[in-house]
Amino acid sequence: MKYLVFETKKEASKEAYKILKSLINENSTLGLATGSTPTDLYEEMIKDHKEGNFSYKNIKSYNLDEYVGISYDHPESYHKFMETNLFDHIDIEKENTHVPDASAEDLEDALKSYQEALNNANIDVQLLGVGSNGHIGFNEPGTPFDTGVHIVDLKQETIEANSRFFNNDINLVPKQAVTMGINDIMKAKHIILLAFGKEKQAAIKNLIDSDIIDESIPCTVLKKHPSVYVLVDKEADFRN
Fold this sequence. Notes:
Blueprint (H helix, E strand, L loop, with lengths): L1 E5 L2 H15 L5 E4 L6 H12 L9 E4 L1 E3 L10 H8 L11 E2 L8 H13 L5 E4 L21 E4 L2 H7 L13 E4 L2 H5 L3 E6 L5 H8 L19 E6 L7
Helix pairs in contact: 1-2
């Protein structure tokens, strides 16, 4: 595991893109994340593409998660997030992008379909953020490490943290999500985890500076993975 600390989110994201680009080619498969954490990294991807340095024409992507019960075109759906923050600005083919269908009438069937797709995907690099409680994807504390695609009841701290995207109204935040399981995340060849802000310090300390590998802190499973890059800003650095 490589642990890198930077002054700012933007500096960390620039380095994250350099690492990402060194690990993939123009036929690779990416595991993508949403939320505020990867936005600067996506800006780096867009900038480099527009400068003619990288094409996503043959890239395939699979997203970690999606809220249950909101439509694709809802402004805070992760489908919409990916279009707004990445897909609409690069030459990726929309049929090569995959986000869990969490608004399907038959949700169980949609979960099975996404699991089958992931089982055949062979993700080269998985991007991750981390929750203040150590969650990765929406795998909350207590999620078994061998879990596949599943529906999760979001913890109160996750709902409160995500309320900033819903006019700071926790009543508007969906209470469930569909997520890749921890087992799916661990199948990626390489993992790049980004963490920004002092509220992430405890999770990063448990990941980097402890012997803990426990389902109560989901991110600690990454210690078992052979190729993980952890990039943080100085506020998230546990040594502060």
